[in-house]
Amino acid sequence: MDRRSFLKWLLSMMAVATAGTWSFLRFGQPDRGAQGPAPTASASATPSPSPTPATPSPTPSKAPSPTPQGSGNLLLSFFLLSDLHVSLYEPSTVEKLKLALADVSEFDPKIEAIVLGGDLTDFGTDNEYSLLRKTLNGYKLPPMYGNMGNHDFYDIWINKDGAFSTDTMPNGKTDAMARARFNKFIGYKDKAYADVTINGVHLMMLSQESYVQERADVGEGAWYTDEQLEWFKKTIAPHKDGSPALVFIHQPLPAVGSDGRTHQLIRANAFRDIVRPYPNVFVFSGHTHRNFIGENHYVMHENFHWFNNASVGRTRGAGSLPNPDGSASQGASRQFAQGMFIQVYERQIVVRGREFTTREWIEGSNWTVPLKA
Fold it and tell me: pTM (2 decimals)?
């Protein structure tokens, strides 16, 4: 099987695996939310090294930023950028990322952090991480954090000649090598998961730890070890005081009460057991590449709030790019690049979907969630 055939098969399997998970989301009721200005951030953990500033690439006209009042003081404003899929073989992934970074770097209110929500690269190779770093270095960006997705382990499919080869997998590579490349890029020490507190707001990045080289049974699912789950249990414990706990995963959760399979969080019941005691847990996933346009991305899952992000590099769907005067175009097919803007206030959290190709908010993708007292 060649590279193109494999990816085509993988995408079809992902569509089947995630369709059932998300079909019920149409019953969710998004609440049209509000944003406000942001204060200066100060992180309590060491983030990925800040990229070297440079002149951004040309971008579309900047849309005005939101200014409505929130509930209580605004504590933190940041972006979740999922599924970048930076690829040497697909230049459009880099161009879409540049559009996102140009928007984020010039954003008003100022963005205080970026979370990279898995699948930073398409194959997890050194060359792709180098390309990603070079791209990030073209913009003045806030501190970055992140977690791994299944694609960040894909170097095992590449043979010594640089060709895609399923027959010779793992081609002398290991999952441990993939974790080491990710940790080196993001700035973590020895684990692919981490937490950080910014302005009193606690972010926890959980991460897939193994792929098929170490555990053939996981497929494209996210396997969390006992060690990571124990770390998560201890790390989230202070939130019994009711403070918001923001948790980032890559693969989505399966139906309530069940463990996951390929393309899902596998040890889902253990995950739910850990978050169940806490009143204000917000979980953010990616992986599905679902478009914010026409699809709901928020649901209450048991007792916690669950948001599913779109993709910067490969959001699904197609349409027509508008003409410069705003009229409908009959020409080029539209390319989507979407992400999630998150603001944490003292008494509520506001989430909005953003289209980076036009620097616009996406209608219907606005949620305001009051914190439980």
Answer: 0.81
